[in-house]
Write a structure and sequence with these properties.
Structural class: mainly alpha
Order of helices and strands: HHH
Largest sheet: none
Radius of gyration: 23 Å
């Protein structure tokens, strides 16, 4: 660790005071370090884009592609299988 608690891989960024204060308030509300508050905010911002991409991909599927997904056993939750509820430990 370096002085101030930073590691060799940490990076310092300059942000306007108002933004720093917003990040600080969020971190305080969430009881997390500033870096975690920033990471969570980015994750929240990126999630809607992920789902837009999923919808865009699914919109481009042909009926044949959709049927292939419906018939793909690996995509099923298999709730009808009584052994499906077993945990890995139960199966030992």
């Amino acid at each position: 660790m370096h002085a101030g608690g930073m590691t060799a891989t940490d990076t310092t960024i300059k942000v306007p005071e108002a933004l720093r204060d917003r990040i600080g308030r969020r971190a305080e509300r969430e009881h997390t370090p500033l870096a975690v508050a920033i990471e969570r905010a980015l994750d929240e911002a990126e999630e809607p884009e992920f789902w837009r991409e999923v919808r865009r991909y699914h919109a481009g599927l042909s009926d044949e592609d959709r049927r292939a997904y419906l018939n793909d056993r690996t995509l099923r939750d298999d709730l009808a299988d009584p052994d499906d509820a077993l945990t890995a430990e139960d199966a030992w």
